[in-house]
Amino acid sequence: MSGSAESTPPSVEAWLARFSNDSPPIGRAGAAITIVLRSGEREVEVLLIERTERESDPASGQVALPGGHVADGDGNLARTALRELAEEVGLEGSDLEGDLRYVGTEHARRFGLNVAVFAVPLGSTSRPAFPRSAEEVAHVFWLPLGALSRTQHVHRETGRGLIEVPASVYNGHILWGFTRRVLRQFFELKVEDDTVGPVFVPHTSPSVPNREPRP
Q1: Longest Cα separation, the chain
Q2: Residue ranges of domains in the chain, CATH in brackets
Q3: Whose C-alpha in 5, 74, 78, 193 is 20 to 30 A from the C-alpha of 22?
Q4: Which secondary structure element, helix H or strand E, spans residue 149, and what is its range?
Q5: DSSP bridge partners of 176
Q6: Greater confidence, 113 or 150?
Q7: What is the SS3 assignment for 94?
């Protein structure tokens, strides 16, 4: 799928064409996340959030894909993913181009949770994504594919203590762990961080209990 220097890089449509628009039922995973793609000026970009720094939040300041835990009434995992997009970054179904594509289910080892991964293109007339709740999301930004493909090593606190981990750094945002692994798998890049990093941490919200995925 990767393009050479002489060829045209894969488009958003080409990346998505590998997956169906089926949605697994609730029960196949306890949470869902969405890879929202758009065509940037030079290459494909993916929407990411950076969580607000809070002392009570084990994933304070981490970079993640929009998404969260299944809630009563979702019906299927695609609805979980769409609900979380609206709650975290203000994107509704009308802001997206077509149905969500089911990429697969990843296991978040540290918390024993299966996470359904979906992907979808941003619509041509979409509203801008923004932090819907400043208490939970500090920043919303678009990561170019080229930045994801570059690796730096940083020190991060993990279940094994403070260790050096591979990361992608872009405009001060540090992407590592579970979210980076999911994205590198999606874009057919070598997986470098299969076993490290925080993944999902339960979080209680007054409106939607236990709904936040962690990077």
Answers
A1: 52
A2: 12-186 (3.90.79.10)
A3: 193
A4: helix 145-149
A5: 167
A6: 150
A7: helix
**151 vs 160: CA distance, rounded Å:** 21
Give pTM, 2 decimals: 0.84
Residue 112 is classified by DSSP as: T
Q: Given CA atoms 101, 104, 108, 112 in this order, what sign does their dihedral have?
A: positive
Question: Between β-strands 63-64 and 44-51, what pairing exists: parallel, antiparallel or unpaired?
Answer: antiparallel
| Cα(173)–Cα(45) distance, integer angstroms | 15
Structure tokens at 184: 């590198």
Percent of the chain, pLDDT > 90?
A: 60
Residue 60 confidence (pLDDT)? 65
In 3D space, the residue among 71, 16, 9, 23 whose CA is nearest the CA of residue 205 turns out to be: 71
183: helix, coil or strand?
helix
Rounded CA-CA distance 149/165 in Å is 15
Give the Cα separation of 65 and 169 in Å (integer).
15
Tokens of 82: 């769409």
pLDDT in tens, 139-198: 999 999 999 999 999 988 777 778 888 999 999 999 998 899 999 999 999 888 655 444
Beta strands in the chain (DSSP E): 31-39, 44-51, 63-64, 67-69, 101-108, 113-121, 137-144, 152-158, 161-170, 173-176
Residue 112 contacts residue 62 (beta carbons within 8 Å): no
Task: Beginning with the edge strand found earlier in the chain, give each strand of the sheet holding 161-170 in spatial order.
Answer: 152-158, 161-170, 173-176
pLDDT at 160: 75
Beta-strand relationship, 31-39 and 113-121: parallel
